[in-house]
Amino acid sequence: MPHKLSSSHEGIGVSVLLRNWTLPSNESGPFATAASDQLKYLLFTAPRTLEGAISHRTNQTQLWADFIYMAPPFIAYYGALQCGPGGDSLMWMAYEQVKLHREELFDKKVGLWRHTALGNGTDHKHWATGNAWAAAGALRVLATIQRSHASKSIRSHQKDLMKWVGEILDGVWKFQVGVCLFHFAIMFRSFRCSSLPFQNSDATLQHKNGTLLNYIDDSDSFADSSSTALLAATTFRFASIAKNDTHIPAAIRALRLVRESVDRHGWLHNTVNPLKISTPNRPGHHSPEGQSFVLLLEAAVSEWASSHKNYSSPRHEDNLNSSRKKNSSHGKHPAHGKHPAHGKHPSHKKR
């Protein structure tokens, strides 16, 4: 495998498995072979730490938060489709990878994940998209196990995953400015300010319009609508799965910002450059990741809203019209703010 990243291919692994599963004969076709070969590489060839954590890179042993979205969901889904003792083992393995990466990357002091650890060229800061990858990936593993044949036999694993996703969301949204906004009451009629245990009146790092910073707890960083979208999507999904709406007001705030940051052509603006993560995208450039995060957010909102009859979603068309008026008069999109610190962090290698 000549690629420098051991887990980037698994990002489409679940889709490959689904395509294979829907074929008339799904045991020996090209999709089955591709998925099997990729799994074998992860389990038997990719570099590992002494504790057994699979490296995100092939040229050195290095752990990345990104890995949690790429490999564990693929391993877990493979196990869910396989069933039997072998399938149980794979789902346990997916859980174990989340556990081992958390032990190395989770920063208990601030409740956030560091981006990378071990090896050369590490990034110990709390990258917003890295935290989003970790939370969303762990949640995918949880959802797969919950709906698998092994859901009753590995309950303790599910409790751990639930806790680990929740602690990331706690760490992220504690930077939400503790202000009770009127539009919350319109969109979620049962909302009350007193129901927000995570309010922090001293927190100022999340923009008042809902955007999170590229490095969440670094006031010199820039606003990033891409990570904001995935973290909001994960929050809505977590609320649906865990029946916990604690952070929904923060996610609604982010949802409004993301919708206002999508132009009439469907492009999300004000995103981090996914190949140079300390740098925002230049005007006219867009993030493929950010585009997919918007879709994940809208799907998550739709599912959550279906079980909350008191919720009235802000109309997407209204937000687009509002955004266009602002853009035509000011020449910029809502996610822009007072954090344009371009180039203040060293560039990272391509992922």
List segments where confidence is low: pLDDT < 50 over at least 5 consecutive residues. Answer: 177-204, 316-332, 337-351
What is the count of DSSP helices, taking H or I runs of 4+ residues?
A: 12
Cα Rg: 20 Å
- Give the helices and strands as they follow along the chain: HHEHHHEEEHHHEEHHHH
N-to-C span: 15 Å
Percent of residues in β-strands: under 5%
The 3D shape can be described as globular
Walk me through this protein's architecture.
The protein has 351 residues and is mainly α. The chain has two domains: 1-173, Glycosyltransferase (Alpha/alpha barrel), CATH 1.50.10.10; 174-351, no CATH class. The chain is 48% helix and 3% strand. The protein is built from twelve helices and six strands. It has a two-stranded antiparallel ribbon. A two-stranded antiparallel ribbon has the order 2-3. Strand 2 and strand 3 (112-113) form a beta hairpin. The longest helix has 22 residues, at 84-105. Residues 177-204, 316-332 and 337-351 have low confidence and may be disordered.
Topology:
Elements: H1 13-21, H2 30-44, E1 63-64, H3 67-70, H4 72-82, H5 84-105, E2 106-107, E3 112-113, E4 116-117, H6 128-146, H7 155-173, H8 182-187, E5 212-213, E6 223-224, H9 225-242, H10 248-260, H11 288-306, H12 316-330
